[in-house]
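User: Run a structure prediction on this.
Assistant: Running it now.
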Amino acid sequence: MKTVVKSAKYIFMALTIFVLAAGCSGTAEIGEPPSEAVCSSIVNVKCVKCHYRTRICDALGTKSVSQWKRSIKFMQKQGAQLTEEEQSQVIACLSSLPTGSAVVCE
């Protein structure tokens, strides 16, 4: 019985560490940014339909992940068509790109 309890404690500790590490990684919510090619493609197909590239470029490096999420939600209310995966990708892209990034700005 002691062995089972001891094993359960170790399993609980390991799971706790795993959950805490996932929550603190900073990427659990939006994931790793897609490749530059994917980011460029999404911006070209989904964003440049309605916005000049300079408008998107000017916003790079100025918004947090939560601000980009709000912007994307607002764009959807205006008619932007984005799947859940595309939303996650565009948020990951735009929130990770530095000001003036060639991926969006050129």
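Residues 4-28 have pLDDT under 50 and may be disordered.
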